[in-house]
Write a structure and sequence with these properties.
The protein is α+β, with helices and mostly antiparallel strands and about 700 residues long. The chain is built from 14 helices and 37 strands. The structure holds beta-D-galactopyranose (GAL).
Length: about 700
Amino acid sequence: MKNLLVLFLFLSCNSVIAQPNIAWKSVAPGIWSAKVGKPDSFNFYTAIQTKPRIGALQLMEAVNFPLPKNDIKATIIDGKTYLHFPLDSSEKIFGLGLNFKTVEQRGRIMRLHMDHYGGQDNGRNHAPVPFYISSKGYGVLINAARYIDVWVGTAVEKDSKHPPVIRDRNTDRKWSASPYSDNIEILIPAAGAELIVFGGPTPLDAVRRYNLFNGGGCLPPKWGLGFWHRTPTLYSETDVMNEVKEYAAHQFPLTVIGLEPGWQSKAYPCTYEWDKGRFPHPEVLMDSLKNRGVYANLWMNPFISPDGELYKPILPYTASHTVWTGVVPDYSMPQVKKLVAEHFTKYLLSKGVSGFKMDENDGYDNWLWPDVTRFPSGNSAEQMRQTYAMMMQQVTANLYRQKNTRTYGLVRGSNAGASSFPYVIYNDYYSHPDFITAMINSSFIGVLWTPEVRGSASSEEWLRRMQTVCFSPLAMINAWSDGTKPWSFPEVEKQVQDIANLRMQLIPYLYTNYADYAFYGTPPIKAMNLVPGFNVNATLVNGKLNSVDNPYAKATKHEIKDQFMVGDDLLVAPLFAGQKSRKVVLPKGKWYDFYTGKLAGEEEVLTIEPGLDIIPVYVRDGGIIPMTSPVLSIGKEKLPVEIRYYGKKESSFQLYDDDGESFDYEKGKFTRITLSVKKDIAGVLQGAVSIPSGARVWSYGDFNWHFMTP
Ligand code: GAL
């Protein structure tokens, strides 16, 4: 009796509410949602309204709910939600934010918290997306804009179905400080949440479903995939124009010029108005840039200066606290969206500005509003912090959408649901190897990341960084503080120019990959773990591997965090300053050297010493890589296409084309050109180009095949 009373008191004080039968509801093909407890009404998907691409999801293979439902458990205790998801012994877990040092997340404990990355994969980063992908081919999203704690295969429950072996540390050498755990556990500081499960069957399919659920990936304007340069912060319009002319004089490609804080009359906090001294004629500047095929991108941060026109009208819709003495607009309020839209249109879009770099919406606790801040919408500071950068993305992206013009820009924060927004994440943490790991991780969580190039300590570092950025979602030098130029290291100027030219040449291939991101949800840059057939448990294949000497097993001991795929056909294995050789893990099938076309290997680990001029790139057997001639900017003229073909296998590639700048493609105004390679009756490979009859071709002139493999 006494015990019962104690139990009763415990239950009533702490309100333990088990959620016995979680009711899963199909919300889109291969996607299920369940609500446990009382979810917040403000979440990722209510913060930004995106529409799932149901049509594309319907085309995917039908799948069943991918997890044993009874093994997913939820309990609400003391106003917090405790979640338990099952985990198999061989399962690997990816995602859970934009990590910089680790790709595999099993064994890690994190608090997913929007922040500037501080050097540790502890959950504080620029995209703390509570979404994970399993190597078994499914994904799980927690749709709650909260600081979420995750224990990824670390916590052991007393009544676990698969308990760890009990070992004695005194005598058993196999004793481990981290005993086996069969679950992922999650704590949400809210009395409920929506859980969303994405089927596969492969990990890549689960990622695709996630991206399609978010409205598909973004399709940048073609110029967005060219070469970018950001000028020093206090440059004037004359300096900017001179910079552009210098690029032309050096015959170096340039499609976007970025202006940093000094374009504004005041910054930190911002006016979002041109500085009359440095930029007396913004529209003239914009016109002259456009005439040279160069687009302008403007830096900003969210905090508004009392000295600007926007301050007064927006004041009633700002938070209780200021940041850098600027007011913090409540981007969840329609009034803010409208005022910002009007102001940006009047001062910026109408002058010809092509996009934005939205800084400082991620964190650094001292550089953001504190969690005690009150927002007029009533949303908590925590919820605002988790979603703020996404709401800024939505407001600015919509401005361009209304003009039927695409934009492409930069942002320092993002979160779940934002795949369709045309923004690429960057930061100030300047580690080249970690930048590549972040790019790999971005592919699991529906965001894009650029390993932007700033200064370098040596010409070697400079070239190595330039090589990787040219294979990233946004090829950019950010010279905001030191004024570096591509030719700052004359001893490698030629190599830097070659790689930037290669970037421009690859635009047909890259643009097609982005179209696949938009239409099918397939990320343009991919982790090796998303490559179909990349089996970390592979044993004997083609007589080359065995269980003792298995390249996947060897490689994954150290995770694959320094090589990645661009599209389906290019495997990129960058080198870093000081590195003379490296290992490359080639997945199943034959792989060919991009530059020579020669066979490089087949499902094996290569050790290579490529020399400073080369960033190693390998092409899958049957890889068709459409490239143009090197151009300095993206114009309207049709360019000749050199179609490079590698290997021996028959194959085809659906080259995508549209006007490169509007949203008309969403209404069907695009063309897929089939490039195919087949053997003729003599067994010789022949290339063919097939344009659907009556279809329009915007960008491409003559097609010439180039069979690379000797
Ligand atoms: C930083 C940003 C840099 C640069 C700088 C200008 O916050 O990460 O890329 O824009 O601000 O003040």
